[in-house]
Amino acid sequence: MRSPFPVRTSGGVVDAALRRFRDDEDGFVLPLATMMLLTFIGGALLAVDGARLSGLQTDLQKAADAAALAAAAELDRRPSAIDRATAAATNLVVNRQIAGLEAGPVRIGSLRFLAALPPSDDDPITAAHVTADPADARFVEVTVAPVTLGTVFPAALFGAQENRARTGAVAVAGQDQAVCDFTPVYICNPFEGSGISLTQAMNDPSVRRRLIQLKAQGSGASYFPGNFGFLQPPGGRGANEIRDMIAQTRPPACFLRSGVELRTGAIASVRSAVNVRFDMYEADQSRNKNDERYRPALNVRKGYVAPGGGKGGGGKADPCNAAPTNDPTRARGLTRDLCFDRGTCAASSGGFSASMQGRIGDGRWDFDGYWSVNHGSRPKPVGPGGATWSNAAPPSRYDVHRYEIDNGLVGSRSPGGETGTPACYGGPAPTDSPDRRLLYGAVLDCLALNDPANGGPIRGGSSDPLPVAAFARFFITEPVASGPEDTIWVEMVDVFEPGVRNDVSRDLVQLYR
Fold first, then answer.
1. pTM of the full structure
2. Which of 64, 208, 253, 255 suits 181 as a labelling partner, its CA being 20 to 30 A distant?
3. What are phi and psi of 495, to 5 degrees?
4. What is the pLDDT of residues 44-63, one digit of tens each?
């Protein structure tokens, strides 16, 4: 039998085997595979660490976003806004992370309150944007404390100082105020420069009842306290549409407190658009007298007498043809402050801007005369402080207007036959929401905005949107009289405070970065 392992001394078989081993390429990839395996393992470890780091950063970003939104919701421009925003960011929202070495609640690293943001998201936020004034703080930047992640990849073997990575997050949120169904009107703050803030004016009854003469800011006129003009609704509207919005119950227009665009120039027939609220439908508004979108107020008492009305009138009165009476014993509207008739209002408005001196009253008006003419011997109301309303302790005209509505006195008839009940409007029964004697307006600090140091002068529609000091309501005390300039006589009622829901105002809290 032949041996399976032949051996030849000549070395032929051995030499052949050695040559085959030398030339055999089987297993050549083993070293390469070993090297690639190490690379694959390293890449996998890096991918795992990357995913863990990304997840941690996402958790931190969500925590920063939540804290920023909570803080921004408190930025209502009131004196305590920054303190409340700080407390909300640090205490109201608690988020935890478990991926980092310091597992536990996400901590706030720093807060910065901002009056404005750079025009581009790519531009950095600098110290010029930071404010410590609660009235100017519109945005908040929240930076969470960085968190360390222990890595699986042995980075220290490749020269790194440690097998760790750190990540953090930053979020910027802000609050804006939006109003809708809002009259496209702005009013230059009557109290600017007087030392009386809008909030003080709202909360002080002696200031609220001071009658204010608003003058139309026409083409070429200056932007002075007490002037009013018109806003340009988004989307662009013509003069006729804006005038129509002034007459409507719920104008289809929305505006942001962060910036409104002004419409330059006068708008014709504003007087008749405002007077619709007093049940007065003049020629250009007569087509609307049966349309509930143009309904009057529930109480339109204004001191007008119709021909043939009252004792000895000699016929049936036509309330739609009424006119102001020269006899204050027959009918009387809510009269102006006595200083306007006496020419002494300027003496009581020395602390106001020069444009307002003589155009804002002292709050003293003839309530006794109004009450006796319209309500006879009916007992006078008692105010919240316990004092009976009188010339010595006068209420605001708006309080009287509301008292008559709330106590069923709108139909009380004066000697001249006037009541406060609408008689010319022919549409569905008018309601009290909203009160049509209230004029909504965006209040602008025109003196400050007109200052070149603040980007002034104001150029109306050609300028950037202008920030609004407040959205406010003013009570219209009497119809707008015909004349060369539209003048509206008002009392300030209140401002729409951020954080307080109502029919027209909403707070917009959102992330910006």
1. 0.78
2. 208
3. -120, 155
4. 655 665 666 666 777 788 88
